[in-house]
Amino acid sequence: MDPRHREWGIGRRGFLGALGSAAILPWMTRRSEPELLRPPNLVAPRVLRQVAGLRPFRKGGLRLELEQLGGRHLLHHYGHGGAGVTLSFGSAELAAELALTVQPRPTEVAVVGSGVIGLTSALTLLEAGFSVRIYAKDFPPGTTSDLAGAEWLPIGMDVGEGAAAEARFQDIMRRAYRRFERLAADPEWAVYRRPAYEPADAEVQLPKAVLDALSPATHLDRLPFPGPDRAGHVRETFLIEPPRFLPRLMREVLKRGASLQARTFTKVDDLLALPENLIVVCLGLGAREVLGDDRLEPVQGQLVHLFPEPLEYLVTHRGGYIFPRHDAIVLGGTWEPGVREARPNPLTQRQLLARHRRWFGL
């Protein structure tokens, strides 16, 4: 097996620690950066909250396929791991294209789930000319997607094996990136272009497919932060703010005519009881119980939110990552496979604060 297919899903801390070389990679340009940026204020009294969520990591890659069952068409669309926001629009476009192969328009389609995958699926189906009803137990802001960071970075998932799986992954990345480029032109979507800094000891030889979807990196002889001299690099990426992005996505879906219905699903018969002939299953981890998909594995991630500050950069290092949102400075960097319950851990909060403070020399 090509080891990349597993390494892409090892989580941010393992991923960033995979290579400790300070060599300049061939896809980087080089310049120095003397002007220092203000570090965040990382003292404990500034903590607003700690949250925990479960990523829907699926061994063998995300599931995006049609199945006929009980006289219905089930279109499975789940298993994005830690890259749900990043890849959402790309895989949703492919899901809509699959829907067109079995369902004429403008008939009604059911979308089950209202996280970022469910809502982007609903929007792309509406754009394709379908009528859509969304079924879910909870709607934003009560979904796991609301807890995301989120930086546009396609890691934290299993791609799958073989040339076909890799080609599909590349296609999804490119489609998603193009969509976020368009959204960044409208401030209401809360998709912002931001510089993302990483030290040299966090650099990793990203697979070519990922590199092709990212902007080029620029080498820095010194990262622009107080503390010891550290080489690294900076690249432009997208910061996506779920507290604003998801409500905007929901408004767009409703404006285009989608309807919402609260419903709980515990078994596949609950899906087959829906009146629609085509059912798009965007249940994330819920698909493990409802569909019996034992390839799904929860991976817990914990975040610490501090009072917001006007910082306009992202930082990722071996100790974690920092995203400045309008509502909070978000600290993260945990990857805990197999944890079945999302529960904030006060020890993790202290560790995240300590790691980030050490890195900034505070």
Word description of this protein:
By secondary structure, the chain is an alpha/beta fold. It has one domain (1-362). The protein contains ten helices and 16 strands. Strands 1, 2, 7, 8, 9, 12, 13, 14, 15 and 16 form a ten-stranded mixed β-sheet that branches. Helix 3 (84-100) packs across helix 5 and helix 4 runs parallel beside helix 7 (242-255). The longest helix has 21 residues, at 163-183.
Q: Concise description?
A:
The protein has 362 residues and is of the alpha/beta class.
Layout of strands and helices, then pairs:
Elements: H1 4-7, H2 12-16, E1 28-31, E2 47-58, E3 63-69, E4 72-78, H3 84-100, E5 108-112, H4 116-127, E6 131-136, H5 163-183, E7 191-199, H6 208-213, E8 217-220, E9 232-240, H7 242-255, E10 259-262, H8 268-272, E11 278-281, H9 286-290, E12 296-306, E13 314-317, E14 320-324, E15 329-332, E16 336-337, H10 346-360
Parallel strand pairs: 1-8, 4-11, 5-6, 5-11, 6-10, 7-13
Antiparallel strand pairs: 2-12, 3-4, 7-9, 8-9, 12-15, 12-16, 13-14, 14-15
